[in-house]
Amino acid sequence: MKFNEIPYKRPELESIFSELNVLIKKFQEASSAQEQIDLMKSIKEVRNEMESFKTIASIRHSINTNDKFYDSENKFFDENSPAYTSVINTYYQAVVKSKFQSELANEFGEHFFNVSKVTVESFDEKNIELLKEENKLSSEYNVIIAQLEIIIDDKKYTIGNISPILSSPDRSLRKRAAKALYKALELKQTELDKLYDGLVKIRHQMAINMGYENYVDLAYKKLNRTDYDSKDVAEYRKAIKEYVVPVVKKLKIRQQKRLGLDSMKYYDSGFKFKSGNPKPKGKSSEIISQGEKMYAEMSPETNEFFQFMLKHELMDLEAKEGKMAGGYATIIGKYKYPFIFSNFNGTSHDVDVLTHEAGHTFQFFRSLSQPLPEYYYPTLEAAEIHSMSMEFFAYPWMDKFFKEDVKKYKFSHLSGSISFLPYGAAIDEFQHFVYENPNISISDRNAGWLKIEEEYGLTSDKEDNSYLLSGRFWQKQGHLYRVPFYYIDYTLAQVCAFQFWEKSEEDFKSAWSDYLHLCNLGGSLPFTKLLEEAKLKSPFVKDNMKGVIQKIDEFLEKIDDSEM
Questions:
Q1: Can you tell me the mean pLDDT for 504-531?
Q2: CA dist., res. 470 & res. 443, Å (int)
Q3: Considering the entire predicted model, what is its pTM?
Q4: CA–CA separation, 12 vs 29, rounded Å?
Q5: Cβ-contact 329, 364 below 8 angstroms
Q6: Helical axes 189-209 vs 128-146, angle rounded to 10°
Q7: Largest alpha-carbon pair distance within the chain?
Q8: What are the tens digits of pLDDT across the range 276-305?
Q9: How far lies 459's CA from each of 237, 252, 257, 462, in Å?
């Protein structure tokens, strides 16, 4: 079936919960390892049914937040997912207590038990009502951002299609666009403040209810981080300040010089070259067609994958009114379907979607035959390696998309990738600050962002923009509302992806072989073990970080960007 032909029905929760509880009880009473293995397969089938309907409703809601039917279905799952999570948590408790752990570990690997353990430690039934409220507030944020009206010169834009105006060669237009964007956010700032404050307090209370000092340790467990902790991440952020921030400051000076500006204003950062930012040539359909050719030539595996995505229409890429902002990749487990959601906007971002999100879905495609849903994809920092590395594996085909602007694109992409690291680390440090100080005032929280912004070299001249001066720039980063502490994962993965870039430049075939192996492993190992399997160096080791950044810096220094 094509995605739009998949039938949807609201799951009968009582029936599903009853079936799962019967299977879990049988699992607890099983007299052999083989019996438990067979029951795990049955539990997987029921889970796939429930979780697939939830995903279908979520995708269709994000495609059109104005659709009342799927809005109500999304609310249904917001309300009932915590109860479902409670049932699955009972299953994980049974797994952790299994008499046949060694036999199950031989069958499925140790990582499943580590994931089960942290899942048990991150859920408590006394938090169910709080989890429902958390889901509700997160969904409210999505709708507010999706329905934001940005008026520029009497024309209406959404946050999903304003990017080309924010990077216009016309500085006056850029300024009007940026002012309009932040004005629209300013009109919603009180709502957004209130939502976030509510989420922080809900999450803190959940942590207190479970005996944690604050939400940080609980959040790490909810993200299934089994092989590193917040202290490792804090040291990693220090390395970004030490090795990356100076490189990014140099790149900003080069950008200012290229553009011939006396100073960089808040509306200049998105504009990279006087001759205009690199844009893909052709309409959306032509970009997808070029993507098809690229994946056909890249490898037999990518060709099979992309043909599958096209055949079943598993991509919704065009920006439109009422569509949720941003992009994501997900899985419909029952059908073994990956899915890509995005908002094409006429910028190089459109090509990045066909590499980044396709990197995710390629990994899903390779891993959906894994024996457990927990192994369909790895923890989030490892999952982002697949997406960010695919962006670099696609470099040999970028001339097909950008024609004469290909050098400009590669310089922009590589310099942009390294420039992202301080921002990603700043968002993470801000979250640690927030959840370690959950009861501070909203104004103190926003003041904290301004201080962190300064430390990571992210500031530019805000002129008289009251929204930015108030310290609320972070509000448009949806991850803070939806998935706390996820954002640092992009930076960890980026440092790993840089290594694939370096390897692919030297020996594409060998680098691809390591990447394919990584994709095939899915989530069967924790982050650091997956790195070992893929022959990648850990970003948590300071000298590794220093070496990776040094190579990027040296490469970029050799490029004469003044010609661009």
A1: 97
A2: 8
A3: 0.91
A4: 26
A5: yes
A6: 160
A7: 76
A8: 899 999 999 999 999 999 999 999 999 999
A9: 18, 11, 17, 8
